[in-house]
Amino acid sequence: xxxxxxxxxxxxxxxxxxxxxxxxxxxxxxxxxxxxxxxxxxxxxxxxxxxxxxxxxxxxxxxxxxxxxxxxxxxxxxxxxxxxxxxxxxxxxxxxxxxxxxxxxxxxxxxxxxxxxxxxxxx
Length: 123
Known about the structure:
The protein is of the alpha+beta class. 17% of the residues lie in helices and 33% in strands. A hairpin with a 2-residue loop joins strand 2 (17-23) and strand 3.
């Protein structure tokens, strides 16, 4: 039995409305994409949806109270809340450098979390 799923592509700023046709667990067709990123996005979203996670982490001795961080790559969508909880409980100590890995293997995903801004020690 064929089913259709409607998605909005987030692969580029166009935001194309996509229609994904599936038979069983097999993707039969992707329509509506203006570029090939749409096709790739629809297939990925259906088989293994992933998201980048960005937030801030507590840094009590830093110039500012929180350090912005992100996952080094997109994480499984089903793990996003677990990742957020783990990062909520994390405390960093300044100095922190941009690009520094602040947590390895977040929520058991094998994905690192990196700082997206440097944090000097509070003076």
